[in-house]
User: Fold Coenzyme A biosynthesis bifunctional protein CoaBC from Nakamurella aerolata.
Amino acid sequence: ALPYDLAGRRIVVTAGGTREPLDPVRFLGNRSSGRQGYALALVAAARGADVTLIAANTDLLDPPGVTVRRVGSALELQHALLGELAGAGGSGVDAVVMNAAVADFRPSIVADHKIKKVSGAGTEPAAAGTAPAEPAETGPGRTEPAEAGRSIALTENPDILRGLVRARAAGELTIGVIVGFAAETGDQQTSALDFGRAKLARKGSDVLVVNEVSGGQGFEVADNAAVVLQNPDTTAPGEPLQRQLARGPKALIGAAVCDLIAQRLRPDAGS
Ligand code: PMT
Assistant:
């Protein structure tokens, strides 16, 4: 049987991938399906937690016993999350799990009509705010070089996770445990795990679950493997700062994260 060690705990989980609109039919997005976040939310609810799931662009069924709020973009996700945290009679939440893949940037201008490929005599104008359109055909069988240089101006999205850490430190939000996830790929100099360590230091969450996502791992599929990193500044002495979780169903990764949340919320934790 599952432990009932999250009874009465209020946990907010984000899942899925944000979509940053370009025009009414296009967006910048990513491959997150929401499976990992949904699995974690379901496990937390089965262990007694009052779970709200903020789901960005997923097509999964609502997990039973979980309150689901649907969002599209990073700014919508931030708005929904802050609304959840400000609710609860101001008493805050026991844990936030930022599993969603949040876009770091969004198009600076969202066209209110579909951006056209071609502009020129007899064709529709390009959307306001797009780069100058390619030249139209100039004669039978002859087309000017096109497409080169067409670009999308981007604006940085807020770093929601880092914002939570800062707001908690400033006493503006009450959050027991802040968990981030990181989808990392290594390169020739730096391993995915080292990128994860640097990300934990930058973001300052209590826990960062690092998924190695090269070669099609992590996103969309049913299984996941992860290394769980704990922040040395907020972890009780003697607790492990790094733990490898074996490859397995996303529910098992979710359960391991729930173990850590339950342990960190125990009244004697850190004493
Ligand atoms: O959904 P699945 O198909 O099951 O795939 C699961 C997963 C691989 C997407 C998931 O387990 C995962 O790793 N999620 C985090 C992916 C990610 O966006 O990593 P990141 O390195 O870009 O961001 C790190 C952390 O900062 C995340 O907690 C993210 O929510 C948060 N973030 C990122 C950008 C931003 N502007 N604000 C944020 O809060």
